[in-house]
Amino acid sequence: MNQPFIEVKNLKKYFPIKKGVFSRTAGHVKAVDGVDFSIYKGETLGLVGESGCGKSTTGRLLLQLLAPTEGEVRYEGKNLVGMNTSELRKMRRDMQMVFQDPYASLDPRLTVGDIIAEPLEIHQMARGKEKDRRIDELLNVVGLSSYHAKRYSHEFSGGQRQRIGIARALALNPKLIVADEPVSALDVSIQSQVINLMQDLQEQFDLTYLFIAHDLSVVKHISNRIGVMYLGRIVELADKRELFDSPQHPYTQALLSAVPTPNPLAKKERIVLRGDVPSPANPPAGCTFHPRCPAVMDRCKTVKPVFQNRDGRFVACHLYE
Amino acid sequence: MERKLLEIKGLKTYFYTDEGVVAAVDGVDISIRAGETVGIVGESGSGKSVTSLTAMRLTPGKVVEGSITFDGKEILGLSEEEMREIRGNEMAMIFQEPMTSLNPVFTIGDQIGEAVRIHRNYSKAQARARAVEMLKLVGIPRAEQIVDEYPHRLSGGMRQRVMIAMAMACDPKLLIADEPTTALDVTIQAQILDLMSELKASKGTAILLITHDLGVVAEMCDRVVVMYDGRVVEESDVVTLFTHPRHPYTQGLMKSMPTLDSEEKRLYSIKGSVPAQGSLRIGCSFAPRCEHAMAICREQSPPLQEIELGHFSRCFLHASAEGRTGHEPAVH
Question: N or C: which end of chain B has fewer CB within 10 A?
Answer without folding.
Answer: N
